[in-house]
Amino acid sequence: MLEPDFADDLARARKGDDDAFARLVAPLRGQLHAHCYRMLGSVHDADDALQDALVRAWLGLPGYQGRGSLRAWLFTVATRTCLDLVAARGRRALPIDLSPAADSAAVDERPRTDVAWLEPYPDVVCEQRETVELAFVAALQHLPGNQRAALLLFEVLGFSAAEIAEIMATTVGSVNSALARARRTLAEKVPPAAQQPTLRRIGDERIRGIVAAYATALEHGDAPALVALLTEDVTWSMPPLPSWYHGLPAVTDFAIRLPLSTCGSWRHLTTFANAQPAIASYRRPGPDGPHEAWSLNVLTLRNDQIAEITSFLDPALFARFGLPVRL
Prior knowledge:
There is one protein chain. This protein has helices at 4-14, 18-40, 43-60, 70-89, 134-140, 145-156, 161-167, 172-189, 195-202, 204-220, 223-227, 248-257, 317-320; strands at residues 230-237, 244-246, 265-273, 276-284, 292-302, 305-312. It is an alpha+beta fold. Strands 2-1-6-5-4-3 form a six-stranded mixed sheet, with helices on both faces. Helix 1 (4-14) packs across helix 2 (18-40) and helix 3 (43-60) crosses helix 4.
């Protein structure tokens, strides 16, 4: 039986009351957007997909009879919208997906504009923060759309195989087969330790210290201080630049030859992305003027060191994270 307020809003929405429709959708909007991001690997594509899905839901509302939950119906619409976009746009990538690591700094490298790059996601408050971690979302991009959808609907959102079969207009056997293949791929791509247990173990105070030390080392051009923060097998990538670096010697060479010496003056603000600590970097190439938005750096920690730096060189991301474009 429908709750009185829900039933009233549903009846009003079917008659064209967009405020009533907004009230119906509001409790699920954040979950729907995060689902679209996991499917598409892009906050901008997630915006587009959610908007398109809600338009489809609004137009299709007369066909919703209330026999199933509104949640299941909205996720059906959102998933099918995302599958259309996956088929049209392909998958998102990181530099590590495209080529072997570089041994030394690639100077004067040009961005690759022919690649759809993975994007970071603003910090979210949810129970399953592991499911928006950068490594998990990057691994999802290696799955075909049907496997990606089945895995997320089952493992993250808790739908049954029968419900997923209905959502994806297929059979339970096909869903179970897609789930098995998706799990095998993710077992190869996702690190064994998620960031959330690591971050809880390190503790907020120590995390703040690591982030502050990283920012200070860059601002002071202090290579030994930066290196002391990094694991021996650290990686550093900077989409849309195609080169990436693995291991302390290569990362140190890159850091000394570029960000620590030739990029000008740095300033930083701390933030969170993909439920991980992140730093917004602002660069001033010359001696005067403001520091302009340059990169959003997502840090992956192991023990109390930095194991991975993913620097998204896209100033357009700053507004989405509520960050100023200059300091």
